[in-house]
Amino acid sequence: MRMRYLTTAQDIGELGFIKSLCEANGIACLFQDEHVSSLYPGVLDLCCQVMVDESEWERATTLISRLRLQIREVAPSS
What we know:
Elements: E1 3-9, H1 12-24, E2 29-32, H2 36-39, H3 44-47, E3 48-53, H4 57-74
Antiparallel strand pairs: 1-3, 2-3
């Protein structure tokens, strides 16, 4: 299985959404530096990379872009 970079989670909440989305759609994924915040509090906000199987990359990219579009549509305007 060859893994390919998908995205970088900006915070714990986004990481949770991405995990749930991948699991619900049967997409295997790895999270690099997921537990860095245990060693260095606050660092996860900057560096948790999400990797998916190369064969699932296109589908995962589509799902992530839909997730981010929905978040923008729901976010309160300033």
